[in-house]
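Hey all, sorry for the wall of text incoming. These are the two entities for the joint prediction.
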Amino acid sequence: MSSESSKKRKPKVIRSDGAPAEGKRNRSDTEQEGKYYSEEAEVDLRDPGRDYELYKYTCQELQRLMAEIQDLKSRGGKDVAVEIEDRRIQSCVHFMTLKKLNRLAHIRLKKGRDQTHEAKQKVDAYHLQLQNLLYEVMHLQKEITKCLEFKSKHEEIDLVSLEEFYKEAPSDISKAEVTMGDPHQQTLARLDWELEQRKRLAEKYRECLSNKEKILKEIEVKKEYLSSLQPRLNSIMQASLPVQEYLFMPFDQAHKQYETARHLPPPLYVLFVQATAYGQACDKTLSVAIEGSVDEAKALFKPPEDSQDDESDSDAEEEQTTKRRRPTLGVQLDDKRKEMLKRHPLSVMLDLKCKDDSVLHLTFYYLMNLNIMTVKAKVTTATELITPISAGDLLSPDSVLSCLYPGDHGKKTPNPANQYQFDKVGILTLRDYVLDLGHPYLWVQKLGGLHFPKEQPQHTVIADHSLSASHMETTMKLLKTRVQSRLALHKQFASLEHGIVPVTSDCQYLFPAKVVSRLVKWVTIAHEDYLELHFTKDIVEAGLAEDTNLYYMALVERGTAKLQAAVVLNPGYSSIPPIFQLCLNWKGEKTNSNDDNIRAMESEVNVCYKELCGPRPSHQLLTNQLQRLCVLLDVYLETDSHDDSVEGPKEFPQEKMCLRLFRGPSRMKPFKYNHPQGFFSHR
Amino acid sequence: MERAVPHAVPLGQMEVFQALQRLHMTIFSQSVSPCGKFLAAGNNYGQIAVFSLSAALSSEAKEESKKPVVTFQAHDGPVYSMVSTDRHLLSAGDGEVKAWLWAEILKKGCKELWRRQPPYRTSLEVPEINALLLVPKENSLILAGGDCQLHTMDLETGAFTRALRGHTDYIHCLALRERSPEVLSGGEDGAVRLWDLRTAKEVQTIEVYKHEECSRPHNGRWIGCLATDSDWMVCGGGPALTLWHLRSSTPTTVFPVRAPQKRVTFYQDLVLTAAGNSCRVDVFTNLGYRAFSLSF
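and here's what came out:
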């Protein structure tokens, strides 16, 4: 309704025109205050309830007017227009009222809002203030708790106890009179004391540190000094070598030996150690050395990869050779045998020097696969020996050490396990190889600490030092005795072959001054020949004629009488006596089986040998026995009872002084010589 | 192929010495214990060994049964003769006679009960005693040996009562002629002399070597063994073993045994002889049959 809007516009125009003018007026002219119209003030005066009633009434009037207008318009007519106009003017008034009311409402609303807003703002401000205050309170509370919880660092320090403090602290710090009462002062004082102490300790600490530095420096210096000593010592050692040699104290040499000894197999090592120890402790004539190639010994223990490489190489080589020619079974077996009997590359040499400057050289080998030791022996003398024919076997390397201990002939391997190994490669016995490998005597095994018990065969026999040590001294002594007795025999044989029985002056008392029977022959005979003799059966049956013994034949003659003596020489001479068996050819053949006196003569030489031993080391036994044999033959021949039926004088006149010619039921001749009276009697 | 020589143990010095001793051993005398179970034997080293006959002769006899039960050193010289009384073993050798108790003899460390030495004339050498003879009726012992005399010793008192002289050389053997009583002695001088014990005089002399049937000059004239059976006598030695009739002093039988005889005994009309010179005592259960040997 444009008319209505224009109506509305009008008041607005008015209003708007009026307001700025009022405003201007407000500012420019304060006197005209009461002149302008303030709707806001009017609002405060009016009652909103009444306004609401007015609004309702107005709305009702409008509605009524509109309805009348409507009616009028619908009825039409002329008067209508006036009425309508009237009503229209009324409704315009009502519209004006409504507008006013609307304004008022707006103003009220605005006021209300403003008031609320204000109030709200106030409340907000208070709220804000409250929060601020609360916040501050909280903050303050925190601060308070903080303050309350605050631990001063001084409480973390462990102070000395009060009593100690009062005891130790000097009085100017402890200030007892003040601090006793005042805990604050007390704590202060204690802290002071603590500080004091700490300062002192810090001082000490610094001092100690500096000391330590000094000492460390000194140590460094000394270390340097010592390390510079080592090369000097070495040079001194080098320089002392000639002095060592001059003084016969080869320490360096010994050191080198010990180095080499590390590569020895265990039994040889045991032997080396024990022999060296024995030599140094008891026997200066024993010297020990190691021979052989150390490199080869080291090569035995090459790591497996290398050896596998070698194997593959050698396999390749072998393949090549097999293409050309297959090795025969015999050659293979031979190689296996050689492998089984292989010796360790290192060997131990022992040299035993005897009183007369003869030396026994012993070389000990170790057979690795058989786990036994062997020895080769050689005797050298100061002067060249002319070997008499019969003495061939005495000093031969093969037999000089035979039966050093009874029964130890060294022809069989002492390790029972070896037999199975031998069977595999077709070796019958070690005897065939002893010339090359050396003899596996039992005492050699014992010196190497190897013990092969017969009752409980062990899987591995380990070299034992105590076994070696317990046998060392006895064996060395036996070895020396053996060499010396053999050398003595050697000399004696040379004399015997010339028909002279060499009786030394200190044994002369055993025999009468005049001995007529003479030794005319002295030869060696073979074992088989001895067994074939008809007058040796008893000895053979008694088991005294072994193949390890040496056999000799002596011939003693006087006039027509010929006495044959078969001699069994045990390798253990002279502790084991030679055994004589006699056969006399004179007026028939007489042996111990048909003539008791022959038996008595044998007894005189075989059983009563201890009288004939002579001074120690009883090397004169054999020669004294032979001399006694000559004396016995003299007695026998001279005391022969004269046979009255035969004519002619006795062939041998009695020259020996005898008390009685016959004694006892067996009518023995007087074979016992009595010194110094010089007569013969019976035992 | 070499001849196998049997031996089990390697021979050390001790074993060799013992073997040699045994090889050169001579058993000179033996005597049976009064109970008959034991045999004592004496050898040339002066040792006496006692064997257990019952063990050795039993059916379960082993090697050890033939070894001595006990062996001890009885004399310094050879034990030339032994006899047994009913309680004692008397042994003699180098000039002394010793007595041992049979009851004690098996114990180790047995000591002699007593020892006596007859009064000898010579002092240079102690003569041996070759023969012992018990005279039960007189309870005396007759010793004879190197000093060419027969000595009688009373077993109760130990005193030497008589010395019978007559032999010109040492006496080998004695025999007792029970009935008379007479003692026969044979000696190195080749004569068998008969002595009367009551008169202590030589009654009869038989010079054996002078008789051609039995003399063997190459052996010598010595009489080694004697046995008598009152009327008869067997003697041998250098001359051949001969049986004599004593009354007539004539040789009746000459036994064809070659070797000089050492011991002879009459036993139930059999003559047992031994010419042993080994360490063994041969036990004969029958003439000429040697059953086994006891070894020292």
